[in-house]
Write a structure and sequence with these properties.
Helices cover 78% and strands 0% of the residues. The chain contains five helices and no strands. The two termini are 21 Å apart.
Amino acid sequence: MTKTTIYTGIILIILGIVAYFASHAQSITALIPAFFGVPIFILGLIARKESIRKHVIHGALVVALVGLVGSVNGIPQFVSMLLGNDVLRPAAVIVKAIMALILIVYIIMGINSFVQARRDKNK
């Protein structure tokens, strides 16, 4: 889960940077995925230390959950956009939807990892 956390952080950082420059650096809010990616990435690096891994990954999942809460409304807006409806700031909607999907996958993988670890411990 450590590598997954690091890679998730990197992907979010890249998403934020791409969104920022794709929007011609008009708004700092385009960097929001990077604002979540940086702490997730750092926590992934810290999680390489075995003795604190579980707690640090839990922290990364909390950061991801907060990011998901803030971005999940991008998914229905994106679907609405695909159906031909007009949305305010379509680029932001796309980035929010991508961020939400990345975080959903990461959170599911994290939960699965902890469930597997618990099962392995109880064997």
